[in-house]
Design goal:
It is a single chain. By secondary structure, the protein is of the alpha+beta class. Helix content is 24%, strand content 23%. It contains 15 helices and 24 strands. Helix 7 packs parallel to helix 8 and helix 10 runs parallel beside helix 12. The chain is globular, with a radius of gyration of 27 Å. The C terminus is likely disordered.
Length: 535
């Protein structure tokens, strides 16, 4: 058996200061010479004992070395192997906390790597089928211990920790293991439960502490103005009912009611409707008006009410304004039970600069283009995804598939024109040409093509529509829709068509079956509320 040497003082001080990037080299149970040494870092603990689940009488005290300050949270115990045996063993930590509470806990640093090397390789090379099942927070049990496996992509961070209500938001408690294959940090944290709040605490490459970051892959979030992620079970796959195949066929007529559910109805106290309240009213209301589909403005988590969801930061999480993932699933079922299809606005074009979000995630331009001529959206003061980066592309594709696999009939992609053109809303000298000197964003086009290929392989009978691609006309239209194969089933130009449709009112022409011409594919109708007319 390999015997590790004793730790040097500098390594312990780095760990205490939250500057050590390899916590598993220090923490947990280690074989040292002919003894077992257990090391734990538990700020706010006043005593720690090792106990053996299989032997109730076994109880071994850990202590803080005299050369370290009392109360620093560093506890060490060392026992000869002749006492505990020379094979690794299961153990628990019995902790007395400064606030008077106590408990027995499994040690996060007793568990080995959680992510398979081949899965990490696939993620780094854009070949993992479900990135959201690898990254994020996933409840599971390991060796009979319930907990949550956390994983975050932050390749340029010096140190990453998961913090939450389960560890007093202290980044020293649960520093993570770096998997160099993919730049992913991972850790299984015992006893964390569904519903717990968490974020990631990162140090940049220079050792500077960054603002706490929400989990890009979280399935649930804290209700704003809170910005934490929330542990949730992975949403169950919810296939479309069989009768949706005919209703969603290309030749079937379509009439869409677009709704921002945050303002469509409010409770008497001004609060938001939850998913069950929406399910009880919205499908009936829309069906009675004669529409075939409901289109929801973005429901993925977003920080600012005034953006109506178009500046989203939680691409996998239904906004906490209306309830949880299970409530959303019931709403999907209610729409289908009423014979309605459900479309979701999906926003891969840009994201806001909020400190808890994706901006400079690990201290570098990780999710966004680094050059503001590519990465900053001048119209909305937002950041633009780096569509050419493998991990970003997989993030966006995983998000789209995650929603489609929850039983929705399709996605409407927002602000497509801003994605397709590098000179969108930019003057000469404010944009960078593509590799061939052109204005098209070839990486964004490749993203859409990859998304459609992946969707066809994994999700059937759904729509994929785009808004804001009216500028694709003439020669550019031929190039992008032909050779490049821009893969939208439907397209609409919201700003151009709304006024004419509303002016016509009940005299608007009947809806036609969809054609193969994207310009006449879809006519979008939305009922105006009195509040809209007042403005």
């Amino acid at each position: 058996m390999h015997r590790k040497p004793m730790l040097d003082h500098a390594a312990i001080e780095a760990l205490l200061a939250g500057q050590h990037g390899d916590p598993f080299a220090l923490l947990g149970l280690h074989a040292c010479e002919d003894a077992w040494e257990l090391r734990v870092l538990l700020p706010s603990a006043i005593s720690v004992h090792l106990i053996l689940p299989q032997d109730a009488s076994a109880n071994f005290a850990l202590s803080t070395p005299p050369d370290l300050p009392a109360g620093c949270g560093w506890f060490v115990g060392r026992w000869p192997m002749r006492l505990l045996g020379d094979a690794r063993f299961d153990y628990r930590l019995r902790v007395q906390w400064a606030n008077g509470s106590h408990g027995d806990y499994a040690d996060a640093y007793a568990f080995g790597p959680q992510l398979a090397e081949d899965a990490l390789w696939a993620l780094a090379h854009g070949e993992h089928p479900h990135a959201d099942q690898l990254l994020g927070a996933h409840p599971l049990a390991i060796d009979g211990v319930d907990g949550v496996r956390f994983a975050v992509w932050a390749p340029n961070a010096r140190r990453a920790s998961v913090v939450g209500n389960f560890n007093d938001w202290d980044g020293r408690r649960h520093p993570m293991r770096l998997r160099h294959t993919a730049g992913v940090w991972e850790l299984f944290v015992p006893h964390v439960q569904i519903g717990d709040f968490y974020k990631f605490e990162l140090l940049d490459a220079q050792g500077h502490l960054l603002p706490l970051k929400a989990d890009p892959y979280a399935y649930a979030s804290e209700l704003r103005p809170g910005t934490a992620s929330r542990v949730a079970a992975r949403p169950l796959a919810q296939p479309l009912p069989a009768d949706r195949a005919q209703a969603n066929a290309r030749q079937a007529p379509i009439s869409i009611y677009e709704a921002h559910i945050g303002s469509w109805r409010r409770r008497g106290d001004g609060g938001f409707y939850d998913w069950d309240q929406l399910a009880a009213e919205l499908p009936d209301y829309v069906a009675e008006l004669g529409f075939t589909h409901i289109e929801l403005m973005p429901i993925s988590e977003y920080p600012f009410d005034g953006s109506w969801g178009y500046q989203t930061l939680g691409l996998f999480a239904p906004t906490a304004r209306h309830g949880d993932v299970r409530g959303f699933a019931r709403f999907v079922d209610a729409c289908h039970a009423r014979g309605l299809g459900l479309l979701l606005d999906w926003v891969p074009a840009h994201f806001p600069t909020d400190a808890h979000g994706l901006a400079q995630f690990d201290g570098t331009a990780l999710y966004e283009y680094a050059d503001p001529r590519e990465g900053f959206h001048q119209d909305w003061n937002t950041l633009i995804y780096n569509f050419g980066r493998t991990e970003v592309r997989e993030f966006l594709i995983a998000s789209a598939l995650s929603w489609l696999q929850r039983g929705v009939d399709g996605l409407r992609v927002d602000a497509v024109a801003s994605m397709l053109y590098r000179d969108y809303s930019r003057e000469h000298g404010e944009w960078i040409p593509n590799a061939f000197g052109g204005r098209e964003n070839l990486e964004a086009i490749a993203l859409f093509k990859r998304l459609q290929r992946t969707r066809r392989q994994r999700v059937s009978r759904c729509h994929h529509g785009g808004r804001g691609i009216d500028r694709l006309s003439g020669r550019v239209s031929t190039d992008l829709r032909g050779r490049a194969g821009l893969p939208f089933q439907m397209e609409h130009g919201l700003d151009e068509r709304h006024p004419a449709l509303h002016a016509a009112g009940p005299d608007s022409p009947p809806l036609a079956s969809r054609s193969t011409d994207l310009r006449t594919d879809l006519r979008l109708q939305r009922e105006l509320h009195p509040a809209d007319l007042a403005r």
